[in-house]
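Narrative summary of target 7.
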Amino acid sequence: MGARKFSVFFGLCLVLLSGSVLASGFVFDGIGVKARGMGGAFRAVADDWSAVYYNPAGLNLIESNNLITMDVAVIHNRFLTTPNVLWGGRYETGFLNGQNIANRHEILNVPQGAFITRTPFFGETVLGFSILQTFDQNQTWQLYQDLPAHNSQLAFPENQFGINLDAVNFQVTAARGFMEDRLSIGLGLSMVRGDLIYSNIVLRDNPMPAPISDRPHDKIPEWYEVNGNGWGFGYRLGALYQVNDRIRAGFSYAGKTSIDISGDGKISLHMGDNPYINEYITSQWLEAVLFLDGEELSYIADVDSKLELPATLGAGVSVDVLDNLTLALDAEIIFWSQFEGLNFNFSNYQGTSFRDTTIITNQTGTYDNAQALIETDMSVPISWKDTPRLMGGVEYRPYNYFQLRGGVGVDKSALDFDNPGGITQVPQFIDLGTKFTYSFGFGFDIQEWSLQFATSYTSYPDITVHSSVDVDNDGISDNLVGNYEADYYQTVLGIVYRF
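Modeled conformation, tokenized:
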């Protein structure tokens, strides 16, 4: 018996030195403390409230008549980029080339929770209401400064390149058993709230003729920010089958969710400062002055977009190797090809000064170049591929009131490295390659209460994007050339009350 205990302990230590998985793209995996501690290998375990996400059928395994839970995930992402954006491989552009720049330091938190109860409907059905965040992306960068020769007087806001994307599910889940509870089936229906704040800087071609558009005034930097929200519909299906007393198999599918985002947009153009070529200004002098006087053109507009959140398909198996030791294995595919980026549609432009208003409405008929510049499309195309991931986890219960957990796994990148012309890597969406996460978790049961803890560290590979790509052929680069590094830290705390 002593040798068996030592073997179990030694095997568990090896697992805890392995990696779990953080999802590719911007899937949020800090759902459920037990599941996070097991590296996300939870489809065939699914015996706590987070089954509403991993496998809705698992609610049928919850033995308590009623259960209330509250979790909070604390997140710190530390990303670094070294821009290398040059025109023609020679000319500086305003990007802070050669500087290793970190995203703005932030400690983020994501609360979530659920209420689960057994009801007498259709024999016995377990119902649950949960609030959980399924997608998340949050980082802000300062990577750009106007070339002094273009404009030395103006500066863009601190959130030059940024994103705050949240998708929160308000989900109702039902599960029940069949075949004397050997088979469980579950369905979750949800209203999904999407919130998006997105900021970016692009370099527009100066539409004026030479010499007004000569270097360094050939590009006009434009900063824009979108702040919007909207609602969509989501669903999750799950099945759980008890093969025998020790083995369970689980299957789940989450459908694609489309959210119509609407809100406000802010746009700022930094025009060139060049007072020395007034002699070249002829009949177009009004518009030429606009491109030469170094002013900031600022305006606001209505914005709408569509956020496409991808479907997922997965399966898993869990084995009770011993009465107090469970091993689990999951495989999943995320259909990231369904996410094609963000296409912002601006309308109802309003300038912040009389001149801007005149330009935007084109009242005089003399600002055709400025009009075309302002109304240029602002899409953010993302070219990603469907990605698989594999997860393994373990839970060891040395005492009835104490559990120890760990996980192992690998997650492929959504970037298409086989197609260098399609690597749309930008600071707002960090996905650098195959990732590994080291995780650990434990839990205590105290009468009706359960206290849970899990923590993880994700190490990304470094990548270098060597050349710019223009996916939608609009003359704007759809990636940021340079080197990228990333680390990700996450801690999840939870409390459960059963009655």
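Confidence is low (pLDDT under 50) at residues 1-22, 353-365.
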